[in-house]
């Protein structure tokens, strides 16, 4: 495994752990050259549905894009990385369990909103206000009232 710090190809596995649910393996590695440590994850290679955008374009599902949008909504909120990872894994499991080749992007957006609503109400409102493209303050007020209930 190539070191992310110095690009040396020689690294040694220091510790190996299987996740609680057994879905991936976490390995702590140490670079043979700079001696810095880094973590790698082994996951099964699976095929996620192709995402169909509103304009009809088809793009590959990207875990990093999903994480970035959730991190943006959760910025400066008291939610741990482990909680975010769990939410992302639940979304990915749902995507795989659907068993479809293509999926509209709005379905993924709704899944994200459900997970954010469980994690943090403020992050949910942030995401929903951008995702649903509110036209006026009344739509925003309706969403906030919904969250309060």
Oligomer: single chain
* Binned strand content: 15-25%
Task: Please count the beta strands (DSSP E, at least 2 residues each).
Answer: 6
Q: Which outline best applies?
A: elongated
Order of helices and strands: EEEEEHHEHHH
Gyration radius, in Å: 19 Å
Highlighted features:
about 150 residues; alpha+beta; 2 domains; three-stranded antiparallel β-sheet
Describe this structure in words.
The structure is a single chain. The chain has two domains: 11-42; 50-148. It has helices at 63-73, 81-98, 105-119, 121-131, 137-148, and strands spanning 11-18, 25-31, 37-42, 50-52, 58-59, 102-104. Strand 4 (50-52) and strand 5 (58-59) form a beta hairpin. It is 45% helix and 19% strand. By secondary structure, it is of the alpha+beta class. The longest helix is centred in the middle third of the chain and has 18 residues, at 81-98. It has a three-stranded antiparallel β-sheet, with no helix packed on it.
